[in-house]
Write a structure and sequence with these properties.
258 residues, alpha/beta, TIM Barrel, eight-stranded parallel beta sheet, 10 helices, 40% helix
């Protein structure tokens, strides 16, 4: 069986076809999924999806791309929201310097707030980093993110960055990008990351893997990520499924495997 460790089932594209999306998950042996919070305004929709399905879990957090709307989420607020029984992680959080420009002190402080909340509640972090690897790793060290651990989601950085994150106790999650023909460096990184430190994801509705590139992504397609990892490592896809599933439930220890 497969687990999609990062998707957005509350997003309109997937919400509009929820039953078909769930049916494809079942058909492709994707038994569990973690649907990810990006804003507090849409968190009720995230939780509603998780509450409606016993094998779907949720996170709570504010994406680094979400610019300030007059106030910032607080540690106490995150801790209160993380008490929900279906919430198994804090995030997605992190740093993203791709679209936004300095000064970004507010983004770095938001990241620190999420790490502190994760350490306080004992739920792991889902970390997003784009064009910001050095600062991301530095803040993780400064805030002792390794105390609770977590995952570097939709990983596209170098092998050196993966090794630095793993040294802090983090897992590395690969998305459909690893199936793209031009993702040669990422494929080499996937070969280098031990299977025991790896997760797989879709980040759906985005980044559909080959052979669905350019179409709407969905959790049922995560098996194509697993198949690519298996090919790169020269191992059976069943091994990728088993180990990444075990990794998921060991990391997200509040998720009940049922």
């Amino acid at each position: 069986m497969f687990v999609d460790s990062h998707c957005h089932l509350d997003f309109p594209e997937l919400a509009a076809e929820r039953e078909r999306v769930l049916a494809l998950m079942e058909a492709n042996q994707v038994t569990h999924a973690l649907t990810i919070s990006t804003t507090l305004a849409t968190l009720p929709d995230v939780l509603k999806v998780a509450e409606s399905h016993p094998r779907i879990f949720a996170s709570v957090g504010v994406h680094p791309d979400e610019e300030r709307d007059g106030r910032e989420v607080t540690e106490d607020e995150l801790l209160r929201l993380a008490e929900h029984p279906k919430v198994v992680a804090i995030g997605e959080t992190g740093l993203d310097y791709y679209r936004l420009v300095e000064p970004l002190d507010w983004q770095r402080e938001r990241f620190r707030t999420h790490i502190r909340a994760a350490n306080a509640c004992g739920k792991p972090l889902v970390i997003h980093t784009r064009n910001a690897a050095e600062d991301t790793l530095r803040i993780m060290r400064e805030e002792s993110a390794g105390k609770v651990g977590g995952v570097m989601h939709c990983f596209t950085e170098t092998t050196a960055v993966a090794e630095a994150a793993m040294a802090q106790g983090f897992h590395i999650s690969f998305s459909g990008i690893v199936t793209f023909k031009n993702a040669k460096d990422l494929k080499e990184t996937a070969k280098a990351v031990p299977l025991e430190r790896m997760l797989i994801e879709t980040d759906s509705p985005y980044l559909a893997p080959t052979p669905y590139r350019g179409k709407m992504n969905q959790p049922g397609y995560v098996k194509h990520v697993a198949e690519e990892i298996a090919t790169l490592k020269g191992i059976p896809v069943e091994d990728v499924a088993r180990v990444t599933t075990d990794n998921f439930f060991r990391l997200f220890r509040h998720a009940i495997q049922g």
